[in-house]
Amino acid sequence: MTRKVEILDVAARDGLQNEPGVVPTGVKVELIRRLIETGVRRLEVASFVNPKKVPQMADAEEVLARLPKRDDVVYVGLVLNRRGFERAVAAGCREIGMVVVASDTFNRRNQGVSTDESISEWLQIAREAHAAGVRAQVTIAAACGCPFEGEVPVDRVIAIAERVAEGNPHEIAFADTIGVGAPAQVTEIFTRARAALPGIPLRGHFHNTRNTGLANAYAALQAGASTLDASCGGIGGCPFAPAATGNIPTEDLVYMLHRSGMSTGVSLE
Ligand code: MG
C-alpha cells in the first residue's frame, strides 16, 4: 500500500502575502488555477485580515469570487478573528483556518491580542463554523520557536493544542512559522500531539530559513502528520516575523515524497 500524503499549497497566501508588491488578482487566480491543474486539491488562497496591515491580501473576496468552482477542490481562507471568519464565510470559503500563536508576544504582534484571547476567539469561531457547515481547522504558530521570546516549550505547545481541540477542529496544524525547528523537536511535538489528541488529524507547516524544512516535514510524517503545507517555488515568510523566509517548496516536497514511495496526487511535471 502506498502511503498517501495530502499537500496544502499556501503559495497564494503565505507566499504572495510576503511579496513586497501587490500581485494583481488575475495573476493570483491564474496561479491557483495552474496549481489545481498539477493535482493539488487543497489550497490556502487568501487571508481575511486588515487590508491596511496586509495590503497584499486586500482582494481576498475578489480572489474567492473569481476562482473556478469545483467540488473536488477546497479553498482555505485564513482568519485571525471573528470578523475575518465572517468575511471568509460570506466570500464562500468552505474551510477556514484560524491561527493561534504559541508565544504571547508574537500573538500580540500578529493579531493584537493575547494567546488566551485568540484561543477563546477560536472556540467561538469553531462553534459558528460548525453551525454554518464550514470546515474549521486551527494552526498553532511559532510552535518551534518565537522571533521575540526565543524557545517555546513543547509543554506549552501541547497545552494550547489540547485547549483548541475543545473546539472540535477538522485538523490541528503545528507551524514552524520562522523556520527555526529541527527534526528531533518536530518528532517530539507530533508524537506528543498524536498521543494527546486522539482522532484529530495533524498537519505540519515548515519554513526553510535554515534549510531544515524538508527534514522537518519528513519527521512530522513519520510521527503521524497526514497533511503538509508547502508553497510552490518556496515563496513565503511572515510579515510579522523578522527574518522568516520561504516555505518548503511544493515541488521539492512532491519529489521527496514520491521518491520515498509515497503518493500525493500531484504531478511533478
Ligand atoms: Mg508560514
Give your account of this protein's structure.
- An 8-stranded parallel barrel has the order 2-3-4-5-6-7-8-9, surrounded by 8 helices.
- The model has no long low-confidence stretch (mean pLDDT 96).
- The chain has helices spanning 11-15, 25-37, 60-66, 82-90, 104-111, 115-132, 154-165, 183-196, 213-222, 250-259; strands spanning 3-4, 6-9, 42-48, 74-79, 95-101, 135-141, 172-176, 202-206, 227-230, 262-263.
- It is built from 10 helices and 10 strands.
- The relative contact order is 0.16.
- Helix content is 39%, strand content 18%.
- By secondary structure, the chain is of the alpha/beta class.
- It is globular, with a radius of gyration of 17 Å.
- Bound molecules: magnesium ion.
Q: Structural class, please?
A: alpha/beta
User: What would the principal axes of the Cα set say about the shape?
Assistant: globular
Give the H and E element order.
Answer: EEHHEHEHEHHEHEHEHEHE
Question: What percentage of residues falls in helices of 4 or more residues?
Answer: 25-40%
Specify the number of helices.
10
Low-confidence stretches: none
Share of β-strand residues: 15-25%
Give the C-alpha Rg: 17 Å
What can be said about the biggest beta sheet? Answer: 8 strands, parallel, barrel
Sheet with most strands: strand arrangement: 2-3-4-5-6-7-8-9
The ligands found in this model are: magnesium ion
What would the average pLDDT be, to the nearest integer? 96
Between the first and last Cα atoms, what is the distance in angstroms? 24 Å
Number of β-strand runs: 10
